[in-house]
Write a structure and sequence with these properties.
The complex is a heterodimer of chains A (149) and B (146).
Chain A lengths: L19 E2 L2 H11 L9 H6 L13 H12 L11 E10 L8 E14 L2 E11 L5 E11 L3
Antiparallel strand pairs in A: 1-3, 2-5, 3-4, 4-5
Chain B lengths: L15 E9 L1 H11 L9 H6 L9 H8 L1 H7 L5 E8 L11 E13 L4 E10 L2 E2 L1 E9 L5
Antiparallel strand pairs in B: 1-3, 2-6, 3-4, 4-5, 4-6
The chains are: A alpha+beta (149), B alpha+beta (146).
Chain lengths: 149, 146
């Protein structure tokens, strides 16, 4: 079955997803997997000495939470995205403050753009992450290319 | 490492801040899959990758992005200074069943914003001379000048 992304999804903002707590263990695992060597990712004492409340997440750490949040759009059959044809086009992280273990983040997904370009389609999503008080902490923008036939 | 601490109050446009070689193997990919939760089989299964039209197993773009920034973060010492980081994915990195792909990254100061006290650092990331990231840019906070 050949499908193409439905442009009607552009501009849609989903209800906030469940709150997620950033964990010490996942930060350490992510830092090791990307070769991030700073002790601020793994040593709470070093992180506190540097002025942080707990260990610091690496810059791209939020990709996992962002992609889990994007799934409600990407995996929705009505969205018309054939994941076997998806290539990652662009990714951007904006951090309003550093992310540390213990942070409780509430993700909200917005589909920013859906557009056709030369037989392919490009979909851009944004996941805004706020603290439980609603203060914006970070945002993750992702552009996926859905290859045409 | 014995690298002297970088003086972030005295950066100049064009200054090289970091230069690194990162080795990516299938082991690296599997570890990243587990750490990130991205279990797309094109990153570990040759048959699936080939059926998807790829030359073979490729690295996660996000593994490349996450790895490419680490040299800069080591030089600035405090990864919490990073304010933004963005890239395009221009070419996939094919990772052989045995052995490694070598990712070369150079970080150079692209622009300094004196009012915001930030610097934009431009990263070039290549494998065997082919750019794998495009317009890879990190913005870091600079300390107030003494």
């Amino acid at each position: 079955m050949s499908t193409s992304p439905d442009p009607a999804f552009a501009g849609r903002t989903y209800p906030a997803s469940p709150a997620h707590t950033v964990s010490v263990a996942k930060i350490a695992e992510f830092a090791a997997a990307t070769g991030a060597t700073s002790p601020l990712h793994t040593d709470p004492g070093a992180a506190r000495a540097a002025g942080y409340e707990d260990v610091l997440a690496p810059p791209t750490f939020l990709v996992s939470l962002a992609q889990a949040t994007e799934a409600q759009y990407i995996e929705d059959p009505a969205a018309g995205i054939d994941f076997s044809r998806v290539v990652h086009g662009e990714e951007a992280f904006t951090l309003h403050r550093p992310i540390v273990a213990g942070d409780v983040l509430v993700p909200t997904l917005t589909v920013e753009k859906v557009r056709a370009a030369g037989g392919h389609a490009m979909v851009t999503t944004r996941v805004d992450l706020a603290d439980p008080e609603g203060i914006e902490v970070a945002s993750v923008r992702s552009m996926l290319v859905v290859r045409g036939d | 490492m014995s690298t002297p601490a970088l003086d972030l109050t005295a950066l100049t446009v064009g200054q090289e801040l970091a230069r690194r070689e990162h080795r990516l193997s299938r082991d690296t990919l599997v570890r990243y899959a587990g750490a990130s939760g991205d279990f797309n089989p094109i990153h570990y299964n040759d048959a699936v990758a080939t059926a998807a039209g790829l030359p073979g197993v490729i690295a996660h773009g996000m593994l490349t992005m996450g790895t490419a920034i680490t040299g800069l973060l080591e030089e600035i010492a405090d990864p919490g200074l990073l304010r933004s980081y963005s890239t395009r994915f221009t070419n996939p990195i094919e990772v052989p069943p045995t052995g490694e792909a070598v990712l070369e990254v150079v970080a150079v100061v692209g622009q300094i914003d004196e009012d915001a006290r930030t610097a934009r650092v431009d990263l070039t990331a290549t494998v065997e001379g082919t750019a794998v990231l495009g317009r890879a840019r990190a913005v870091i906070a600079l300390p107030e000048q003494a």
